[in-house]
């Protein structure tokens, strides 16, 4: 399940919704990761652009991998502006036993950072500045560059 | 004389922070696109770090024939979360 929201995430609401949705699914483990905007370098917040078609196929691929292990992944992300101490990202894995979910949440969040087509901007002094130094080129990038 | 069905017109979209409007180009493969974009002052600085998708599937080689109506997307470095 992939959910995109305009602005910050309602963290308690989303965690509760996911918890209740799987309450009787017989999963023994529910491991969420919540990403919250921290105060650093004088930013007022962050802002996000998302390219949904490729995000969806990337997520579906991960969901298939989880399913093979008897697990399920859920993810929520913000579009647009998210201010300090608000949250822009939640990922969670449900699995029958804890080990699968613990390993999956680690692999999933790392690949999310490296591959999901989402662009981050710092909100600072009324400007929206691409977070170039914190961004990662997607695997296979550069084919159009000069040889 | 070209017949209408021979024309291969593709749309090129620049995602995220690349500040450029989409282009409509008459090209038949990604090598032609590379040659055009390497001469484009607004875009060329991005090319070494951009991933490329054709019809929303990431491609890792220029050996990709294009069909009329294809959508090509350029994806600069990402940072979700």
Could you explain how this protein is built, in words?
The complex is a heterodimer of chains A (147) and B (81). Chain A is built from three helices and seven strands. Chain A is α+β, with helices and mostly antiparallel strands. Chain A has a single domain (2-125), classed as Alpha-Beta Complex (Aldehyde Oxidoreductase, domain 3). In chain A, strands 1, 2, 3, 4, 5, 6 and 7 form a seven-stranded mixed sheet that branches. The longest helix of chain A has 18 residues, at 98-115. With 81 residues, chain B is mainly beta. Chain B is built from one helix and five strands. The radius of gyration of chain B is 13 Å and the shape is globular. The termini of chain B are far apart.
Write the SSE topology.
The complex is a heterodimer of chains A (147) and B (81).
Chain A: E1 2-6, H1 11-21, E2 29-36, E3 45-50, H2 52-68, E4 72-83, E5 87-95, H3 98-115, E6 118-124, E7 127-130
Chain B: E1 9-14, E2 23-26, H1 30-37, E3 51-54, E4 57-59, E5 71-75
Parallel strand pairs in B: 1-5
Antiparallel strand pairs in B: 1-2, 3-4, 3-5
Q: Write down the domain tally of chain B.
A: 1
**Strand adjacency order, main sheet of chain B:** 2-1-5-3-4
* Overall SS class of chain A: alpha+beta
Distance between the termini of chain A: 40 Å
Name the shape of chain A in a single word.
globular
Low-confidence stretches of chain A: none
Name the helix and strand elements of chain B from N-terminus to C-terminus, one letter apiece. EEHEEE
Q: With helices defined by DSSP (H or I, 4 residues minimum), what is the helix count of chain A?
A: 3
The CATH class of chain B turns out to be: Alpha Beta
Largest sheet of chain A: 7 strands, mixed
SS field, number of helical segments of chain B? 1
Examine the coordinates and then state which fold CATH places here, giving the name of the CATH topology of chain B. Ubiquitin-like (UB roll)
Cα gyration radius of chain A (Å): 16 Å
What structural class should be given to the helix and strand makeup of chain B? mainly beta
What is the terminal separation of chain B in angstroms?
Answer: 53 Å
Major protein interface: A-B, 37 and 32 residues
Instruction: Give the full name of the CATH homologous superfamily of chain A.
Output: Molybdopterin biosynthesis MoaE subunit
CATH superfamily of chain B: Beta-grasp domain
The assigned CATH architecture of chain A is: Alpha-Beta Complex
| Regions with little confidence, pLDDT below 50 for 5+ residues of chain B | none
Helix content of chain B: under 10%
